[in-house]
Design a protein that fits this description.
Elements lengths: L5 H31 L3 E10 L4 E13 L3 E3 L5 H4 L4 H22 L6 E5 L1 H4 L4 H10 L9 E6 H6 L1 H13 L4 E6 L6 H6 L4 E4 L1 H5 L5 H16 L3 E4 L5 H10 L3 E2 L10 H13 L6 H6 L1
Parallel strand pairs: 2-4, 4-5, 5-6, 6-7, 7-8, 8-9
Antiparallel strand pairs: 1-2, 1-9, 2-3
Helix pairs in contact: 1-3, 3-5
This protein binds ligand C2E and magnesium ion (3 copies).
One magnesium ion binds next to loops.
């Protein structure tokens, strides 16, 4: 019916829009319920120094153990709450859960820093730093650097002055901040100078192409140079194979994360994985290379 004439068409689309809204509202309520019932959990993906063959930390990646639909990936639910206060609840939960896990590892004799992804809306909250300080105060065993945050480049650009202050505030609390997915947003040289982030995380879309695409290789090389001259660290995400790692090392990027190193894994798998990795890193050790 909606296709026949103007008036009908408008009503037709309105009804559809309303149905979509209803669906989103319902999904959000399910997410809220899921947070309440501890249905979310974190997987941990190692970040390594490919030159020395050591693990420098892990990134916490959220999953939802849905009661009917199995394990859901972030793209299936994070977009639904990105502009909603639920993303703040999810982030707050993730920070608490990551610190708890870091404390468990510290008690097991291993200091592993965990980085948590923070949505744009969450960091802009008035009480963000206060909450962060409160979380940290719960774990006296942990030292500065046990928690790191990853923020999206697009976040930083929208409200640069405000985000710059927040990033500085986090670092005063001993929480380094990395700019995630670097190269996909709008950050310019001038922005980078004003944002006191400790590291840039090179987006996987550039890393993927470095083996066979000259432009991607040029972009990676330029970002490395930029980061170095501004005193920032660079880490590559999406290191899909050992060859990608080798190519990154040749370009001077020593830190990497990706399926070619390890997939995201449950907390209990991490210490055994680290032991194995540090015994025989796929690129050898810098020392081995020197000896050879
Ligand atoms: P991200 O922060 O850029 O995380 C990296 C994503 O790349 C992860 O996907 C990871 O599993 C995937 N990945 C790692 N290595 C490789 C590789 O070699 N190849 C490929 N193709 N992919 C790789 P995941 O876990 O699905 O997370 C997707 C995004 O969801 C994250 O991107 C992040 O933006 C968001 N996210 C994850 N956890 C949270 C969270 O706790 N809160 C919020 N707000 N967002 C989160
Ligand atoms: Mg991230
Ligand atoms: Mg990323
Ligand atoms: Mg990414």
């Amino acid at each position: 019916f909606g296709k026949r004439e103007g008036g009908g068409r408008v009503r037709f689309f309105d009804a559809q829009a309303a149905r979509v809204d209803q669906q989103v509202l319902w999904e959000r309520r399910r997410i809220e319920g899921g947070l309440l019932h501890s249905e979310f959990f974190l997987l941990y993906q190692p970040k390594v120094d490919m030159r020395s063959g050591t693990v420098v930390g892990v990134e916490a990646l959220v999953r939802w153990q849905h009661p009917h639909r199995g394990v859901l990936q972030p793209w299936e639910f994070v977009p639904l709450i990105e502009d909603h206060e639920l993303v703040e609840h999810l982030g707050d939960w993730a920070i608490g859960a990551a610190l708890h896990q870091a404390n468990d590892w510290a008690e097991a004799g291993r200091d592993i820093s965990i980085s948590v992804n923070i949505g744009p809306r969450h960091m802009a909250r008035l009480d963000f730093l206060e909450r962060l300080a409160f979380h940290l105060s719960q774990w006296p065993l942990l030292h500065a650097g046990s928690l790191e945050l990853e923020i999206l480049e697009s976040t930083a650009i929208n409200e640069l002055a405000k985000i710059a202050d927040l990033v500085a505030g986090c670092q005063l609390l001993g929480v380094p901040v990395t700019m995630d997915d670097f190269g996909t947003g709008y950050a310019s040289l001038a922005y980078m100078r004003q944002l006191p982030v400790h590291a840039l995380k090179l987006d996987q879309s550039f890393v993927r192409g470095i083996l066979d695409n000259d432009e991607d290789r040029a972009i990676v090389a330029a970002v490395l140079m930029l980061a170095q001259s501004l005193g920032r660290t660079t880490i590559a995400e999406g290191v899909e194979t050992v060859e990608h790692g080798r190519a990154l090392l040749a370009l001077g990027c020593t830190l990497g994360q990706g399926y070619g190193i390890a997939k995201p894994m449950p907390a209990e798998a991490l210490l055994p994985w680290i032991a194995e990795f540090e015994r025989s890193p796929p690129w050898g050790r810098a020392g081995d290379a020197a000896a050879a």
